[in-house]
Write a structure and sequence with these properties.
With 811 residues, this protein is an alpha+beta fold. The chain has 19 helices and 38 strands. The longest helix is centred in the middle third of the chain and has 36 residues, at 443-478. The protein starts with 9 loop residues before the first helix and ends with a helix. InterPro entries: ANXUR1/2-like, Kinase-like_dom_sf, Malectin-like_Carb-bd_dom, Prot_kinase_dom, Protein_kinase_ATP_BS, Ser-Thr/Tyr_kinase_cat_dom, Ser/Thr_kinase_AS. Residues 492-770 form the Protein kinase domain.
């Protein structure tokens, strides 16, 4: 509906971009431009001549009785007046007959809903349109369609593709007590089977429909035609078929991609399989791309509103126009349409033998009504994980195929405005009364409804299971999927063990192209396949400098492994162990503390779905060559919905000495993202020497109080003697840094979750001034603010603000 909203600017773009326009690569046999209601020839701003209706006797002999012509009382499209100055208004059934050559034709209908003369207001017009037996529009309102388009336009151009044998019969039928109208009719020939034979390989790839061929029993409606990454291409700059190519900005939703790349000095080479009329050079000289796989978690993504219950033809245009990637396999990516796999590992460099040369591929997909009458059709392109792989798209077209006899969508997708059609409202009320009487008086109908609901529940369960299977398939594509044999090869038969944990063993290895990786091989008995896919999903959706990057996975029967980046300096615990001399100074420890805090802040607030780690400890903080910390091993973390923070205690994990008290007893509150805050506080205390590792290792849950909350920390803070932290040989600046980190940590380990700051506030405290921090109240393992009056706590200002957030939301 919004396909031609920018048409008003086509004149200016045409004048500035191409001068006299592009050389026509295709010359149509039939070109009919009918300015309905006009009395003389007129030229539009593209210098195309529009004729009057009766020049070739297109109309019936009693045209003046069945219809009348009128001029627009108000002209709001002055930049493009033809054919919107006049209109033909129909009182009853009216049929144009155009004698044209056999073949497929473009049929474009022009509508400008406004007042015409003193007798007709097109805003209240409802009507239907048929052509050669195909219903193109039903109970259609040009006014409501224009008003609901995004962005809003003043006029509308509907484009259809119909097969014609000798005569094109175009019939307008007003709805009861209404009139119909049209401003212009355009009929244009096109190359034989241009939109019906398939892409340049003569194939229509079936994504989720039964359509792989399109015959003469099919009509199509053009919904979207986009110049991806580029500007508006007006009709005069098309390749002879006068199509309009809109920018894709309104439909593109991805971030951090290389956008609107223009290659103005490149000459496009059209191979025989892709004639020059397929798309203009402007389309193939502009594109969107990922910029290879520097961030393999990102997609190129577009969303398009469509009608449910129809099959769609999706045509994608590509042009590998970057010489620097030729011969390197640099255009390998996968295509997803409607969240389903359309094409795996498309190698664009392999398919385009001469650079730059275009190709185009066609896909068919059926869109059901499970997501409403006007669902979104999603298109995703995702690069493979090799070094030079990239995703790219130059152009896109989406066309709707007719159901038997009709291509019109559900009328309810247009929201009726007040008083737009009294007739339509009256008819609707009569239907409601009739349906109500039938429902009230028919026991058979009630039984049918019950049977239908049972069937629907079963269908929903099947679809849910199918979507779950599709999710597994998509993860296998969006991430590198290794076989178990490949994992053995990478790890050299698991010969280099670099770590062990409760859930498996970590091995060092090398990918085939050289980079080192760490491979976590999970225990065979651990969880089920769904648990593992959830783990992979949570890790694959993260991207942060302080989060370990997932590179791939293995899921083969009971064999499961995760491949992630290798970090040279291993885990943090080896640097802060009391059994070894210190190797990190105060400023380095501060930088590591801040990095871990930022990583947790990202998990809690930066992800689409909140991720709670539940096992923050030195062994799960890894350090790269520059001692930059990265949080790892959050694969079994519980994924909370965005507005849910309290999670089930089932399968809760953690390490004694770092586990928050609410994990052991609900008297301290519910388990949430605040449990990570507690673990972080205990981690920092240990980093700065304020915990006795020997006590923690020998403690139990029952006598944990002395290890968790050593009173002597508070005593030393109060008397200013912090020699227990890092010894006597530290500077004043380092001493202040250490004191600040201890204060932040003590706020984090408050026993009541509501008394702890959220991670975003923790980051602010670490980066802020020491003077702004007060010594927190001494915690007690036997007091919970959930069971005592609020005034018993002396929190800094940030805490009360977060309490309000907790009370007024579901977070």
């Amino acid at each position: 509906m919004i396909f031609y909203v920018l048409f008003v600017f086509s004149v200016f773009v045409s004048a500035t971009c191409r001068g006299e326009g592009a050389t026509a690569a295709y010359k149509p046999n039939d070109v009919l431009l009918i300015n309905c209601g006009a009395t003389s020839y007129t030229n539009d701003t593209g210098n195309r001549t529009w004729t009057v209706e009766f020049y070739w006797d297109h109309s019936p002999w009693n045209s003046e009785k069945l219809s009348f012509a009128a001029k627009a009382s108000y002209q709001d499209v002055a930049a493009f007046p033809v054919p919107f100055r006049e209109a033909r208004i129909f009182r009853s059934n009216f049929t144009y007959k155009f004698h044209v050559s056999p073949g497929w034709k473009f049929l474009r209908l022009y509508f400008y809903p406004t007042r015409y003369g003193s007798n007709f207001d097109a805003n209240g017009s409802f009507f239907s349109v048929k052509v050669n037996g195909f219903t193109l529009l039903k109970n259609f309102s040009a006014y409501l369609t224009v008003k609901t388009s995004k962005p809003e336009s003043k006029y509308l151009i509907k484009e259809f593709i119909v097969p014609v044998f000798e005569t094109l019969s175009l019939t307008f039928t007003p709805s009861p007590n209404s009139l119909a109208f049209v401003n212009g009719v355009e009929i244009l020939s096109m190359p034989d089977r241009f939109y019906t034979k398939g892409g340049d390989d003569a194939e229509i790839r079936n994504v989720s429909s039964t359509v792989n061929t399109i015959d003469e029993a099919t009509a199509l409606e053009t919904l979207y035609r986009l110049n991806v990454g580029g500007h508006l291409v007006p009709p005069v700059n098309d390749t002879g078929m006068f199509r309009r190519w809109l920018p894709d900005d309104e439909f593109f939703i991805s971030e951090n991609s290389v956008t609107k790349q223009v290659l103005s000095d490149v000459d496009i080479y059209y191979p025989p399989e892709t004639p020059a009329y397929v798309a203009p050079e402007d389309v193939y000289k502009t594109y969107r791309a990922m910029g290879n796989n520097q961030n393999p978690q990102l997609n190129l993504t577009w969303l398009f509103k469509v009608d449910a219950g129809f099959t769609y033809l999706v045509r994608l245009h590509f042009c590998n126009s970057l010489p620097e990637v030729d011969g390197q396999g640099g255009r390998i990516f996968s295509i997803f349409i409607g969240n389903q796999i359309a094409k795996l590992d498309l190698d664009l460099t392999f398919l385009t033998y001469v650079s730059p040369s275009p190709i185009y591929l066609d896909f068919s997909i059926y869109v059901g009504s499970e997501n409403g009458l006007r669902p979104d059709l999603r298109l995703d392109l995702h690069p493979s994980n090799d070094e030079f792989d990239d995703a790219i798209l130059n152009g896109l077209e989406i066309l709707k195929l007719n159901n038997p006899g009709s291509i019109t969508g559900p009328n309810s997708d247009v929201v009726m405005s007040k008083g737009a059609s009294n007739v339509a409202n009256t008819t609707r009320r009569k239907r409601i009364v009739t349906i109500t009487l039938i429902a009230a008086g028919s026991v058979l109908l009630a039984v049918s409804v019950i049977v239908f609901l049972i069937f629907l529940v079963r269908q929903i369960k099947r679809r849910k299971k199918s979507r779950q299977n599709n999710s597994v398939a998509m993860f296998k594509v969006l991430l590198k999927h290794y076989t178990y044999a490949e994992v053995r090869k990478i790890t050299k038969s698991f010969s280099n063990t670099i770590g062990k944990g409760g859930f498996g063993t970590v091995y060092g290895g090398n990918l085939c192209n050289g980079p080192k990786v760490a491979v976590k091989v999970l225990k065979d008995s651990m969880g089920n396949g769904e648990d593992f896919i959830n783990e992979v999903a949570s890790m694959s959706q993260t991207s942060h400098v302080n989060i370990v990057s997932l590179l791939g996975f293995c899921y083969e029967g009971s064999k499961r492994a995760i491949v992630y980046e290798f970090l040279e300096n291993g885990s943090l615990d080896q640097f802060i162990s009391r059994e070894k001399p210190l190797t990190l100074d105060v400023k380095t420890l501060y930088g590591i503390s801040l990095g871990v805090a930022r990583g947790l802040e990202y998990l809690h607030y930066g992800c689409k779905t909140r991720i709670v780690h539940f096992d923050i400890k030195p062994q799960n903080i890894l350090l790269d060559g520059n001692l930059c910390p990265k949080v790892s091993d959050f694969g079994l973390a519980k994924l909370c919905e965005t507005r849910e923070s309290i999670v089930s205690l089932m399968d809760t994990r953690g390490t004694i000495g770092y586990i928050a008290p609410e994990v052991f007893s609900r008297m301290y509150g519910g388990v949430s993202h605040k449990s990570d805050v507690y673990s972080y506080g205990m981690l920092v205390l240990e980093m700065f020497g304020a915990r006795s590792k020997k006590i923690v290792e020998t403690t139990t849950v029952s006598n944990a109080s002395s290890a968790y909350f050593p009173d002597w920390i508070y005593e030393d803070l109060e008397n200013g003697q912090q020699t227990w932290i890092l010894g006597d040989e530290i500077t004043t600046e380092e001493n202040e840094i250490a004191r600040k980190m201890i204060l932040v940590s003590l706020w984090c380990i408050q026993p009541c979750p509501m008394d702890r700051p959220p991670m975003n506030r923790v980051v602010e405290m670490i980066e802020g001034s020491l003077d702004a921090l007060e010594i927190p109240p001494k915690p007690s393992m036997h007091i919970s603010r959930g069971f005592v009056p609020d005034q018993s706590s002396s929190l800094p200002s940030f805490s009360h603000g977060y309490e309000a957030e907790e009370k007024n939301s579901n977070l």
